Fold:
Amino acid sequence: MDKLFVGLDVSKNDYKVCVLDAEGERVGKVFALKNNADDSEILVERIVEAAKIHETTKVFIGYESTSVYGWHLQYFLADSPTLQAFSPTIICFNPSVIENHKKSIGDLPKTDRIDAFAIADRLRIGRLPESTPVDFRYLALQRLTRHRFHIVENIVREKNYYLSNLFLKCSGLCQSGVFSNNFGAAATSLVDDIDNFEEIANMPLEDLVEWLVEKGREHFEFPEETAKKLQSAVKSSYRLNAAVDHSLNLVLRSCLANIKSLEQQKKAVEKSIREQVAFFEREYTCLKSVKGIGDVIAAGLIAEIAGISRFENDNALAKFAGIYWNAHQSADFSADESHLRRRGNKYLRYYFVLAADQLRKYAPEYNEFYSRKFKESKTHHHKRALILTSRKAIRLVFALLHDNKLYSPAH
Structure:
């Protein structure tokens, strides 16, 4: 026997361990360890002990994706010098894969120990997800780029919440589009400075124009026209009970404070990203040679790809990002359309879609490709065309990083 399969069912406080041999027989009993560094040393010792007793040369270790609870354990095992003699392959399974495998081997109860067995048995079956070596150099940058992603999500959520409350406060303001941006200086000053919008409706037009010019920092091209639209929007809005109006003022100002704080945090994180990405000058230079791929997109791609040598070709990279389609064919039937498989790295997918959206604006070849796919799509034209363009962008990014070259439209 030359293979050993270790299934780990990980939770916040502990994890259950099941070890199987190549025939699917348990090697010892299923046991539990605390999810900390000391007990993980014990895990390494037990794996090594079992591997030596059974003359194993190769160890497979698997666990389910469970938020951040398996993060430390994965990197602890990958970085263990003791395990290196057994060429460990560490696989992170999508929980649905393990659930489907349990159904295929019988009606098993839902317990941590059974789950650990199912993970080990799924490792033994083979046809495993792509396993790539861990490169610790990219982790620091990855934490920053993912945190920026988290902040941006919160900004979008907070802005949507603000706009829903702004509609309650002054429905006409949201309906008429008085301001091109409801988060601009003049629009937010309206909420910050004025408690009762009836003041706007009754204000002399000249005074309102002067106020808009001051708060808008003289950016309004036609301030008098904007002032008239604003008064009309306020007058057409529903009237509110004074108590409700007061509550909405507090909510809206709180939202604006949250958005301002998040924007400041985003700038601070982006500054740290620019400092950290300097350690990857080669990759950064290659990606930045493409007009449209800026600092944020380049850093995000570098952090999530974590070394292009991990991928054999652009198809492997696309599958890792979850931007690929499975064929749907049976006998003489072949589907004209197939669904996008979203089982992949959602952060990498996000950055490839961002890159595609920029490339269609700045690169004629990508603009032409996007436009063609937009016309070909029967529904969801923009989304479908953008995803297809992002698949094309994957080929470009893979080629640039793999060949260590700058972008040239002629090639």
